[in-house]
Specification:
The structure holds 2 protein chains of 2 kinds.
Chain A lengths: L6 H6 L9 H27 L4 H8 L2 H29 L3 H30 L3
Helix pairs in contact in A: 2-4, 4-5
Chain B lengths: L3 H5 L14 H32 L1 H12 L1 H28 L6 H29 L4
Classes of the chains: A mainly alpha, B mainly alpha.
Chain lengths: 127, 135
């Protein structure tokens, strides 16, 4: 027998971490989404550079900006959380500290995401 | 889990410092560093959005900080990190298709993305200053 894996294990294709290519795939999908959305952010920041508050609110609160901005925040925090998870898993070896850092990573990402989403909703409803 | 004491006496494989630095190696390290920087840089985006949602006074205050010399320096670095990480990601997309692994190609892509990230960052900032009417 050259392969110690059971037929069921092979069919599932989840490997030793029991997650298969899930992490890799989500990293790539969010990365692809981030490309146009980040370019949108860059254009938005250029357009609003040096402009007053009323102009900024008028643009950031319009549906044309709200939807891509929310998409960017969601895709961005998914991507950055996955990326930081890999960094932690590579460099933090103590089991307890590692789990703590991984939780902190999730909390930080969600908190930043919620702060952005809250601000975007507030802008879209008119401040 | 392996016992820590039994691990201590085993020979270890050489780590990063034993290798001569190469461009592709530096690009890989910088890709991770820019990723980590952008991770914490997300706080700046949150700050800016919250400032806009708070009101004219606080927005003006944050804009003043962003427009200061230090603020511009940070934003310039942020722009480069963003573009560099994005171009690095596009290289990874090319590798994901199974192509581009020949050494000359890898070397060329590393050079192109480094030059590209610097050029694009400068282009973005020129456009930024033009939009502000400063150029």
């Amino acid at each position: 027998m050259s392969d110690m894996r059971t037929p069921l294990n092979k069919v599932r294709g989840l490997g030793s971490a029991k997650e298969g290519a899930d992490h890799f795939w989500r990293q790539r999908v969010s990365a692809l989404a981030n490309v146009p959305l980040t370019l949108f952010l860059v254009v938005t920041i250029i357009a609003l550079a040096g402009k007053d508050h009323a102009t900024a609110v008028a643009w950031l609160g319009s549906p044309l900006a709200v939807i891509p901005m929310m998409a960017l925040v969601i895709s961005g925090i998914i991507h950055m959380r996955l990326g930081m998870q890999v960094i932690v898993e590579d460099y933090v070896h103590g089991e307890g500290v590692k789990i703590f850092c991984l939780m902190l990573n999730t909390f930080f990402s969600i908190l930043v995401g919620l702060a952005c989403i809250f601000a975007i909703i507030k802008l879209s409803l008119g401040t | 889990m392996a016992d820590a004491k039994s691990q201590a006496n085993r020979p270890l494989s050489p780590h990063l410092q034993i290798y001569k630095p190469t461009l592709t190696m530096m690009m890989s390290i910088v890709h991770r560093m820019t990723g980590a920087a952008l991770y914490f840089g997300s706080l700046l985006l949150a700050w800016w959005l919250i400032a806009a949602a708070t009101g004219p006074d606080y927005f003006a205050y944050v804009n003043d900080i962003a427009g200061s010399f230090i603020g511009r320096l940070v934003m310039f670095g942020y722009t480069w990190a963003l573009i560099h990480h994005m171009l690095g990601g596009i290289r990874h997309f090319i590798w994901d298709t199974g192509s581009g692994f020949e050494l000359p190609t890898v070397e060329l892509m590393a050079r192109l993305s480094l030059i590209g990230s610097i050029c694009l960052t400068l282009v973005i900032w020129v456009f930024g200053y033009m939009a502000m009417g400063a150029l």
